Amino acid sequence: MKIGAALAADLDILTAALDEPGADVLHTLHQLSVDAQAAVPTYLGLSVTVDGSDPPFTFTTLEDGMAADVRTSLWLTLPGVGVGVGVGVGDGRVSPSVALILYAGTPGTFVDLTADLAWLTGRPASDFALDQHLCGPARPDTGTYLRTASVINQAIGVLIGRGYTPERAHRELDTQADSACTERHTTARFILDTITAEGPADAEQTDQEPNIG
pTM higher than 0.90, yes or no? Predict the structure, then answer.
């Protein structure tokens, strides 16, 4: 499994933020992939979503060119891990939930694994979802990285400074992204670039009116 430099850097940030001696998220991800490959010969990759930030920290890794070959998937949740303040994936007080999706190329591959996991963990079979996430990303190593989340959060802060409530700020960002047929991160970057280009007088005038378009 190949992990891009951007994702590796973000996983290093997560490792540094974990309050656990010896923790290494990048190594753990590699080991998880190795174990999954050993258990499931047609294993293709995985997705991870940590629901502790806005937007959630999420990424997907698949072998190059294999996204179209996904024929089965297994979704399950993992115990959350508290992380430190300032990394955008938690506040150190409430452990975020972690969702994991495994992908493979042979239908039915995860049936026995699901039964084993349910028995080992004592969880009901309904806690595991088979073949509900067969549409992987268009390319491997994609997702919302910490830096992307930071840009989005900064843009939300700018909109709030312009008079929007937090809820309206999120809606405005979504509306602008939809109107421009682009991603939230690209729109957020545009908002920040606009702020940089504005002079003090322009910024003051903009802050008086909750209107960025």
Answer: no
